[in-house]
Amino acid sequence: MSSSTEIKAFADKYGIKNVNLIRTGALVNGEWVYNTDDVFSVTDPGTGDHLLHVSNTKIEVIEQGIKDAQTAFESYLSKSTGRERGRILRKFYDLMLENFNDLAILCTIENGKSLTDSKGEITYASSFFEWFAEEAPRIYADNIPSAASNKRIITSKQPIGVVGILTPWNFPAAMITRKLGAAFAAGCSTVIKPATETPLSALALGYLAEEAGFPKGMLSMFPVDQKRTIQVGKLFCESPIVKKISFTGSTGVGKLLMQQSSSTLKKLSFELGGNAPFIVFEDADVDAAVQGAIGCKLRQSGQTCICANRLYIHEEVYEEFAAKFVAEVSKTVLGHGLEPDTTHGPLIHERAVAKVQEHIQDAVSKGAKVLYGGNRASHLGENFHELTVLGDVPKSARVNKEETFGPVVPLIRFSSEEEVLQLANDTEYGLAGYFFSRDYARIFRFGEKLQCGMVGANTGALGEAALPFGGIGWSGFGREGSKYGIDDYTVLKSIVIGGI
């Protein structure tokens, strides 16, 4: 792990005021545990520079942490109320706002996104604690009339128990808070494995949880390297103590976790890959559609799960949309996330850059035209790639079937509503979809026919705590956020009372 001197130097270099946020060990049952014999390096994807060494948590420590989480759950459940948990979550929300700039800086330097994007993430991440602070006291169930006159059926929602949380690198704060807020509001204890690439943001939240008053053992956090990640995922899935897994990541890993969980028949909620269509109809407000597409497709350089992946533009407005979209993209600034003018940062690693190149080359080889960009931006760093707009992309191109997860914008012509509906739904994935139209009959008709869990009609922005976030098909199941978010962390119990 990094020494206190290194941590202080790190804080001074990046202007982080609250040095206590910088943690490099595991949070286990209320204690910070350091594995000095085995560490992994966290790097800045914008420069490739080493940032800090973080402890690679030992498997035996994680196993004990899971047991401690069960003990904490059993102890806390008998004496906690939803109102009390709500106060703790509200304090957590306030602490995130108090440390807003520091948390945003941490996010940018380990993830690469622009500081503006990171500030947006911290706002989004903290909102889940505010939301679930208000939901915690309101976990309602029903009194159901019985068919028998001398019986009553009473239901209650009870916390499921220990929850295993596995999160990705692209939203290192928000993907934790969206799950943790709901789990704790329900009364569950949690064990969390953050992404190897971005543990610093997660561990900062661990520190703030302590400050907010999380009871000992109700939240444990285990940073591990890439190799041990596989072991921890399997451990969470096969542990009889862990009653639920909440995972955000790729569909392939989700399928593996589902198989590994089968022996213990866990409750699961998965938010997996996407292949979101973005459709501009002939009657759309083209300027609004361009702005929606810029944010929806190129936010964080295209590295979000609900990014538009395929842009279908009606032939009547195709040329206008393409020209205006390229003009807007030309205003962007590629660079290191902490530079004040930067709008878009690097990709997370070289593998992501390689996939972007593969998708561009495939589309061009099949007849697509490069309207903007198209090349690596190696002068900025090995993980940088130009924002790229491709025109006249054929329907046979790989970008129609595979999630790029990068700054490639394929423009595809269509001529009718029936045609584009078939194209949009021609995928195993179903996380998000977007379309722009002034026809309100079409908004209802087409929105209901799009096969995905979330639809943006005349908007490219879906993320907020009030939204039931989740997909269908290969994009997973379960919903996070919203009034439904706690349900995935509870079990419904019924008591039938006779002799009345």
From TrEMBL:
User: Could you say which protein family the record assigns here?
Assistant: Belongs to the aldehyde dehydrogenase family.
Start and end of every Aldehyde dehydrogenase domain?
Answer: 32-495
Origin species, per record, is Pichia kudriavzevii (Yeast)
GO cellular component, alphabetical, reads: cytoplasm
GO BP terms: namely: gamma-aminobutyric acid catabolic process
Please give the catalytic activity noted in the UniProt record.
succinate semialdehyde + NADP(+) + H2O = succinate + NADPH + 2 H(+); succinate semialdehyde + NAD(+) + H2O = succinate + NADH + 2 H(+)
Quote the protein name from its UniProt record: Succinate-semialdehyde dehydrogenase, mitochondrial
Q: What is its EC number?
A: 1.2.1.16, 1.2.1.24
Looking up SUPFAM superfamilies in the UniProt record yields: ALDH-like
What is annotated as the active site? 271
Tell me which Pfam families the record gives.
Aldedh (PF00171)
